[in-house]
């Protein structure tokens, strides 16, 4: 069965990272032209060359920040000139910060002597950083890149949320709240755009072992899983971390016309984590 993906133009933010570089490759494998956006210019330029060579389909790396509207506007001009009008947007740039991460799961009496590790030690600078990157970093690219879709009354936007958006994980207060905001915004925008032919959905990946969470899930020195890592595996019915490749089917489904009546949903891809009560 054919989809309408072939020769469409997709913008992928955070494409220099673990998850979105794989997403870009799977789009290219389906015949989608990709514009790879990242602050890490070298990573996306290298990836674009790799994609063109492997999949024989146009791909460009464009340096821009999802927090800088001017740089996104410049990127759009380059994309329109080189690849054409934009059909899809994957808002993948995101991440956590140690500055907004508590050192303990639950505060207990003995923490009164060391508040730094609790909620009271968290830095507002960290909250700002995490909210900016995950929430504003989804809004701004959408403002810039969705205009082409609105003009042609056709397009699909996929935001990358997280498992912690439904129920917060311990320690990462800012990241959980920022991803909850992404879910809320996904629903809001899906309604706002629903008569304009543009669908807006999100994927909530479960636990993958990547750069952003390695410091929480594996011991830096020994490489062994931390107590938190063990807890995650024990609460994931499939008893393993996911891989970036395992997000691809959901991404292609949400972008393609196979999901033409689907908008405003956040789909978990989590090995059963969100379904499991722990008993
Ligand atoms: P990653 O750190 O490997 O990639 C993130 C990319 O975003 C990097 O290439 C980075 O340079 C880029 N970036 C950072 N700030 C930017 C900015 N201002 N403008 C443009 N690009 C910027 O992270 P990842 O694990 O591949 O995560 C991708 C997405 O998936 C994120 O939104 C993350 O929150 C989400 N996610 C990850 C996991 C996981 O387990 N890794 C789970 C759920 C959700």
TrEMBL record:
Source organism: Labilibaculum filiforme
Regions crossing the membrane: none
Protein name: D-mannonate oxidoreductase
Family according to the record: Belongs to the short-chain dehydrogenases/reductases (SDR) family.
Keyword Nucleus carried by entry: no
Keywords of the record: Oxidoreductase
Entry-linked InterPro entries: NAD(P)-bd_dom_sf, Sc_DH/Rdtase_CS, SDR_fam
Pfam families given in the database record: adh_short_C2
Keyword Flavoprotein: no
Record GO terms (molecular function): oxidoreductase activity, acting on the CH-OH group of donors, NAD or NADP as acceptor
């Amino acid at each position: 069965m054919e989809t309408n993906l072939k020769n469409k133009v997709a913008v992928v933010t955070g494409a220099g990272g673990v998850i979105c570089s794989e997403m870009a490759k799977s789009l290219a494998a389906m015949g989608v032209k990709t514009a790879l956006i990242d602050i890490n210019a070298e990573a996306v330029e290298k990836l674009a060359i790799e994609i063109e060579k492997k999949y024989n389909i146009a791909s460009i790396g464009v340096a821009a920040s999802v927090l800088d509207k001017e740089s996104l506007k410049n990127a759009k001009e380059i994309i329109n000139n080189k690849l054409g009008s934009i059909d899809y947007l994957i808002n993948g740039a995101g991440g956590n910060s140690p500055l907004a991460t508590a050192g303990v799961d639950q505060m207990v009496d003995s923490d009164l002597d060391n508040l730094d590790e609790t909620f009271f030690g968290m830095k507002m600078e960290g909250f700002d950083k995490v909210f900016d990157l995950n929430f504003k970093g989804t809004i701004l690219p959408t403002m810039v890149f969705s205009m082409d879709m609105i003009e042609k009354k056709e397009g699909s936007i996929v935001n990358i949320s997280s498992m912690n958006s439904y129920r917060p994980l311990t320690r990462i207060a800012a990241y959980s709240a920022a991803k909850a905001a992404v879910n809320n915004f996904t629903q809001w925008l899906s309604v706002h755009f629903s008569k304009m032919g543009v669908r807006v959905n999100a994927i909530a990946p479960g636990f993958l072992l990547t750069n952003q969470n390695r410091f929480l899930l594996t011991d830096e020195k020994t490489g062994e899983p931390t107590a938190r890592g063990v807890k995650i595996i024990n609460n994931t019915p499939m008893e393993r971390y996911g891989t970036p490749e395992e997000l691809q089917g959901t991404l292609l489904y949400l972008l393609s016309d196979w999901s033409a009546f689907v908008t405003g949903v956040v789909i978990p891809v989590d090995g059963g984590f969100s379904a499991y009560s722990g008993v």
